[in-house]
Amino acid sequence: MLPLSGLHVVDLCTYVAGPSACMTLAQLGADVVRVDPIGGATDTRRLPLAPGGRSLYWAGLNRGKRSIEVDLRSEAGRDVVRGLLAVPGDGHGILVTNAVGQAWLRHAALLEVRPDLIQVQIGGRADGRPAVDYTVNCEVGLPWVTGPVDASAPVNHVLPAWDLITGAHAALAVVSAERLRRATGAPQLVEINLADVAVATMAHLGFVADVVVNGSQRLREGNYLYGSYGCDFPTADARRVMVVALTNRHWNNLIRLTGTEDVLAAMEKALGVDFAAEEARYRYRDVISALLRPWFEQRTHADVVAALEGAHILWGDYRTIEEMTRSGDGLLATSGLFTEVDDPALGRYPVPLPVARPSGWAPPVPGPAPAVGADTGNVLSDWLGLSGSEAAGLAETGAVRLPV
Amino acid sequence: MLPLSGLHVVDLCTYVAGPSACMTLAQLGADVVRVDPIGGATDTRRLPLAPGGRSLYWAGLNRGKRSIEVDLRSEAGRDVVRGLLAVPGDGHGILVTNAVGQAWLRHAALLEVRPDLIQVQIGGRADGRPAVDYTVNCEVGLPWVTGPVDASAPVNHVLPAWDLITGAHAALAVVSAERLRRATGAPQLVEINLADVAVATMAHLGFVADVVVNGSQRLREGNYLYGSYGCDFPTADARRVMVVALTNRHWNNLIRLTGTEDVLAAMEKALGVDFAAEEARYRYRDVISALLRPWFEQRTHADVVAALEGAHILWGDYRTIEEMTRSGDGLLATSGLFTEVDDPALGRYPVPLPVARPSGWAPPVPGPAPAVGADTGNVLSDWLGLSGSEAAGLAETGAVRLPV
Predict the structure, then answer these.
(1) Which terminal residue of chain A, N or C, has fewer Cβ atoms less than 10 Å from its own Cβ?
(2) What is the Cα–Cα distance from A245 to A268, expressed in whole angstroms?
(3) Rounded Cα gap, residues B375 and B387, in angstroms
(4) Is this entry keyworded Isomerase (chains A, B) (predicted)?
């Protein structure tokens, strides 16, 4: 038995936030059915593609689900979706969608087919205007404080962080709403907007209060870690490491290893500060880094790594994406989280187990993502009880497409 | 009634991931008690600080919780924590912690006091080595593909995205594990590591498969949106906007507005490509941007914004953190999610409601974060049933500290 065994989720989502939410639910044991428009949604062929033209990106966000291919513009197709939501039973009647503003998907309209529907709706902005990760990120100010100190232009992030955080909160909203429905029997509508997630997170991290209370805002400071001591250093052989001293133990280990205790003590005395306070380490980060840098520049990467490990210093290695993926000591290999999946349409490559490593249940083994519409027949049978000929009849009307 | 009403969570967490997980649980209705060491943990005074010296960062991640101040190095203090976990009742016996590797917090040891304990443990790496957001991010390769195309050094992210994603998954793990415990009565241990979250996310987004299947990896491409068309443009008055054309509707609106239809059509013909395919827009992003840029450079920001809005183009404005916070049309104001909180120790500033906007329940109204140890007395009374004199006796032993 899995934590979400018995939950049946209709996933009417595109791009990152919604699909990742529903994939997470599937990893926890929910039965997730993607509803795809005929031919697949706009993100079905998104880069990167495998040699055969199928999307590795789409596959990565839709594992562990089934896909049913429905003509979402026809009433007959919409009736199929309404039918999926109306399936009786405690664990049915759950919709996650980022299709906002469509009349047929309004919560009030769907309550007519499922009076205790759980609907989690992922939107752009609270006022209904559309937004995606890339148009939200620029609005929170982070691109102006990302990148080299002397950069003159904003620097976008590459990771769609707002999508991913929103997706995880959407999954949580489903499970939380279902807990409440079991207690009260009442329907649940939860709206989560990318822009809300972004601005609320900026508040949680103190960015907003800093402006309002102190009248100050975070400056661009390169690769430094704000508020404490963290800096990247090049090694003699042009590799690079990130070193972090959050606690006094980290700090003491770092200055002992680099032989900078005496000079830093003299500096503390002359400046009248105490680097045992992380605020002081942060304020004097430039001079600290200038003192530490020669130690790194005079050693090869291998020597630096061995010394950092031996001294129990908190550090990270700058790797390329390829090194992360292929190196024997890269994050992929050392996580132990990956198993090789052989996808007939995409090839053989490693796929991760869920990030939540449980001792009380066995997560589903990773497998290929479905082809769009691969499960139309079996979902019509499993969820709606349609016979093969009934499904074929429905396909003839054009409401659904059966796999060939 | 709230979705997580009846859940009682012990939050033994520092920094971002764990505290944000437990704050999210509190926003959904859980009763969350932070266990703080005497004087507060290492992150209690993290920047930014309010004028009085209290941390705005810490306050942002610990709202809606109570705080009990315990000597975690003494057996008597640890007995208090074990007592909090052993409180009878279905919704008790839930621990979230990022204190890994401490013998007294091992799951097997804690099962002796609470046989059906739910324990969600947030770690650094799967092999037990420590890691923080900043030491994980460099290992996944993103800093080498973030920032200007001609940058020679890696560019760190400023948002601790891995912490935040991990935190949201930890909250989900609590609620999911509790669902399973109610069904089976069995204890649950779930481990979530920052490094796992990072590398698994890189796999979900297709980065890993691209390396293994295609032998290619993402290149540094500045502020472009990978795989489709998205680019930032300066305006005549030196402001900046991000424009995104994910769908053909977006694309057609954009080229119609900028009057580039004919030249792009001629280019499509000459190159033998079709910009209706986002892959083609992505491949020719530089030449497309060069054609679009004059339209933006010849107009003021106000004119550009009015035209983009009128043409229903998907776009975002580059704002500073201060503009996000203070502008009447910034994300904070337009979200409608914030209420002003008057915190006696920190000042008056806006604090967000939960990002999940429900129709079926009323989220708790945001309030100040607790001072460290502010609730020691009432938690000892509520959870453990101690009288005032019993609590005072415990404080005399040094196991806990009562607020003055």
Answers:
(1) C
(2) 17
(3) 14
(4) yes
Largest interatomic CA distance in chain B: 87
Q: How many of the other CB atoms lie within 10 Å of CB of B68? A: 26
Give A261→chain B minimum CA distance, Å.
22
Indicate the burial class of A333 (C-beta count within 10 angstroms; 0-12, 13-18, 19 or more).
middle
Question: Cβ–Cβ contacts within 10 Å for residue A186, how many?
Answer: 15
Integer Cα distance of B213 and B211 in angstroms: 6
d(CA B93, CA B117): 5
Interface contact flag, B321 A4, Cβ < 8 Å? no
ipTM of the complex, rounded to two decimals: 0.98
Domain ranges of chain B: 8-202+371-401, 240-317
Is residue A339 within 8 A of residue A351, CB to CB? The reply is yes
Structure tokens at B77: 């203090």
| Alpha helices, DSSP H, located in A241-400 | 248-257, 261-271, 278-283, 285-297, 301-310, 321-326, 331-335, 376-382, 388-397
Global pTM value:
0.98
A45 touches A36 (CB < 8 A): no
A389 CA to chain B: closest CA distance, Å? Answer: 36
Cβ atoms within 10 Å of B132's Cβ, excluding its own? 24
Fold type of domain B8-202+371-401: Rossmann fold (3.40.50)
| Cross-chain Cβ contact A202/B324 below 8 Å | yes
Q: What is the pLDDT of residues A46-59, one digit of tens each?
A: 999 999 999 999 99
Question: Structure tokens of A355?
Answer: 């990030």
Residues of A annotated catalytic, as ranges: 163
pLDDT confidence of A404, banded at 50, 70, 90? confident
d(Cα A284, Cα A244) in Å, to the nearest integer? 15
The whole-angstrom separation of Cα A402 and Cα A395 is 6
Point out the residue among B139, B227, B228 whose CB comes nearest to the CB of A319: B139
What is the Cα Rg of chain A in Å? 26
Cα separation of A163 and A124, whole Å? Answer: 10
Q: How near does any CA of chain B get to the CA of A392, in Å?
A: 32
Q: Is B321 helix (H, G, I), strand (E, B) or coil?
A: helix
Interchain pair B214, A51: CB under 8 A: yes
A305 touches chain B (CB under 8 A): no
Label residues B233-260 b or e (16+ Cβ within 10 Å = b).
bbbeeebbbbbbbbbeebbebbbebbeb
CA dist B186 and B154 (Å) reads 46
Per residue in B27-70, pLDDT (tens digit) is: 999 999 999 999 999 899 999 999 999 999 999 999 999 999 99
